[in-house]
Amino acid sequence: MPELPEVEVTKRGIAPYVTGRLVERVDVRTLALRWPVPPDLARTLTRQAVRNVERRGKYLLFETDAGWFIVHLGMTGTLRVLRPEQAGAPAKHDHIDWIFDEFVLRYRDPRRFGAVLWHARADGDVYAHPLLANLGVEPFTDDFTGELIFRRTRGRTASIKQVLLAGEIVVGVGNIYASESLFRAGIRPTTAAGRVSLARCERLAEAVRATLAAAIERGGSTLRDFVGSNGESGYFQLDCFVYDRAGEPCRVCDAPIRQIVQGQRSTYYCAHCQR
């Protein structure tokens, strides 16, 4: 599933193409995504200029004068920038095209767990949208600190990894990045969140930022379907310390990496480095 690094990579690839450009038309071929695509989206966006592209958690926010169209990539979604000669006829899973003067922005989603929604400017601040209003803080802002993690986890008996994945404290730390961040911080993923000390929470905040920044630098992670807006795969998975390396030697201490299941998701860790 595309997580924060993959969505950020997508945003950075798309923004230079669409910012300041008019949407000539929108071809919506599938309305039935995770939530129904607004039936009047094509009419609403025709001849609208994209003023800005932002990311909030795993959501992409495309601002126009009339409002924002919001894109979530779901589990298998991608947004590609294609020249007309590259685009060709839409394939089975190519659900929506935004046609600009010199290129097409194409949304593809084989499993259709993603979403394309609309938030009108008349409805107020886009960050008050029900899907965005209760998200945790962004990891690269000053609001994300070890003290925040410490304060929000007191009394919590859920594992620290599950708390990271929930997105209530910080957004975008998906399964790969939770395992990797906890390794960098030296914290065992099964540790009850409420038992992690302030000093370790501070190390964890730094580890989350470092892990996500490294993943963005490497173009995200491609395990199955993800490609960036230019069609290229991400390569962070090649640098992982623990994720998907069960039985292989730890890159730090040579102990075998272990694999367990938490909340129906695989967790990887080093029993020697993470205590």
What do these coordinates show?
This protein has 275 residues and is of the alpha+beta class. It folds into 2 domains: 4-128, N-terminal domain of MutM-like DNA repair proteins (Alpha-Beta Barrel), CATH 3.20.190.10; 146-269, Helicase, Ruva Protein, domain 3 (Orthogonal Bundle). The chain has 7 helices and 10 strands. A hairpin with a 2-residue loop joins strand 9 and strand 10. The longest helix is centred in the last third of the chain and has 20 residues, at 198-217. It starts with a helix and ends in a 6-residue tail after the last strand.
Question: What's the structural blueprint in terms of helices and strands?
Answer:
Elements: H1 4-18, E1 25-28, H2 41-45, E2 52-56, E3 59-63, E4 67-72, E5 78-82, H3 84-87, E6 94-99, E7 104-108, E8 115-120, H4 146-153, H5 160-166, H6 175-185, H7 198-217, E9 258-262, E10 265-269
Query: What is the CATH topology descriptor of the largest domain?
Result: N-terminal domain of MutM-like DNA repair proteins
Counted up, domains total: 2
Mean pLDDT, nearest integer?
Answer: 92
| CATH architecture grouping of the largest domain | Alpha-Beta Barrel
Name the features.
275 residues, 7 helices, alpha+beta, Helicase, Ruva Protein, domain 3, elongated, 2 domains, 4-stranded antiparallel sheet, N-terminal domain of MutM-like DNA repair proteins
